Amino acid sequence: WELICALRGHLNQGAIGCGIFLELLKGLSHQNANILPFSTSKPLMPISKPRYLEELESYLRAELQALDLTKGKVQELKLQPYREVFECFMEEFKTYKPLLASIKREYESTIAHLQEKICTLESVNGVLVTASDQCTQQILAFQQQEKIEIAKLKDERLYLLKLIDKMKEEKCSLETQVAKLRKTVAEEYLRYLNECDARKLLLLDLNEMYRQKEEMRLTMEQEDVLEEDTVKLKVALRVARQDLTKAQVDLNTMQANYGDVVPRRDFELQEQKYNDLANKLSTLQKDFNDLRDEYEIMLDIHKQVADDRDRYFNDLINVQRTSTPRPDWNKCGDVVLGGNERWSSLSVGKTSDQLVDVLLEEIGAGLLRERDTFTGRGRSEKIPPYLRCDGLVRNKKLTKKEVVALLREIWREKIISDQQKGKQSSLPDFFLGFFQKKYGEAAAFDWTYSVYENLKLFRSNEMMTSFHYAQLDLTLNQKKNGILSN
Q1: HEC-encoded secondary structure of 288-325
Q2: Hey, what's the torsion of the CAs at 45, 51, 54, 60, to 10 degrees?
Q3: What are the tens digits of pLDDT across the range 11-35?
Q4: What's the CA gap between 176 and 182, in Å, rounded?
Q5: CA nearest 21: which of 111, 99, 124, 88?
Q6: How far is CA 350 from CA 71, 281, 330, 353, 386, in A?
Q7: How far apart are the first and last CA of the chain?
Q8: Measured between alpha carbons, how far is 179 from 183 in angstroms, rounded to an integer?
Q9: Is the pTM here over 0.70, yes or no?
């Protein structure tokens, strides 16, 4: 029981939750107590300790006494002997060994976890202690600095109070001095005012005395003049008159000699103006001569133009009298299919001869569309091959665009055929053969007559006119080359 109590006390120091182990030990002790014989009527006799228990206790005491408790981590050192005793205890009780081993592992893991937490908390505690020391030092430094600043402010306050008292004293002294100075200035002002008045009176007296003195001097001079010699005055008068006569003669001489003379500066200015005007006059004279020559030339040209105008006017009158009047082509817009708009597009940029062709084409196209058949020209040798037939031939009523497309196709086929044969074939024969090959023998002359009538009608179209000339063997090669280039 002593061993169990010691283990329980030590485990209570290590972790929380050792009640399970204690209950197990109590159950074990009760079980052993039930095994032992006892009597209810007699008191129990003291039971001697088992030998194994005594050995464990002696081993535990020896280990605890052998420990050096002066080193750090005393609790861990004391725990090690108890751990060894507990292991021996588990080895003794084989039946409870697994349970005791699991309990030991849980306690060991709990102790390790708590030690880790303690280590972590110790590091945090160290940081907190360091931070607390630093904060304390900073607070002390701030307090010391505040004390120094407060002392400085107090000294400055005392200095300012003394300075204010001193300035108040100076202000009182200055106010006293200002009052004295004002009084002195007032006295000086009165004194200067009296002096100014006295000076004005003195000036008036001086002026009066000076006036009286001048009057006395003038009076004395008049008396002296009256007393001078009359002969002396006559001589002076004669000399003055001679000087006046001489001056008058000199003046008259100067006016006679230099009356028409101007100053040199005015002369130079006038000379400069004269030179400028002379240059301008020469330039204007030159321009005038040029303009006069041009005017004479223009008069000659005008005379020639007037003569030409009169001659052309006479020629116009003669032409109007002898020639037929020019037709009003705008009237054709009312007759042509499509109205004035189509006639304007057809007649733009064309001469009268071309307009006649256009008008004939429009009239002929209308008449050609109204015909249903053509009359065959017979089978004479003088008739071209593509027109040699008898009877009536049906009109295909082709448009101008369709005819141009057929002509292009005929030229293209003829060129290919000539290249294949190596020689040039006759256009009239090829013309008939093209339609016979394309539409058959029966309908070939319908197409040849329809195309031929359109070729005769539309002379303003270069393609159709060239093809018509080529059929008549007129400048065949030249016309064909022009069409191919187009």
Answers
A1: HHHHHHHHHHHHHHHHHHHHHHHHHHHHHHHHHHHCCC
A2: -150
A3: 444 433 344 444 444 444 444 444 3
A4: 10
A5: 99
A6: 133, 60, 13, 8, 34
A7: 136
A8: 6
A9: no
List, in order, residues 6 or more apart from 389 with CB less than 8 Å away: 376, 377, 378, 379, 445
295-324: average pLDDT: 86
Tell me if 60 sits within 8 A of 49, measured CB to CB. no
For residues 120-140, average pLDDT: 87
Helix, strand or coil, per DSSP, at residue 378: strand
CA distance 73 to 122: 14
**Taking the CB of residue 255, how many other CB atoms lie within 10 A of it?**
9
How many angstroms separate the CA atoms of 380 and 208, rounded? Answer: 165
pLDDT digits (tens, 9 = 90+) for 379-428: 888 888 888 888 888 877 777 788 888 888 888 888 888 888 887 777 78
| 109/403 Cα distance (integer angstroms) | 114
**Angstrom distance (rounded) from CA 395 to CA 369:** 8
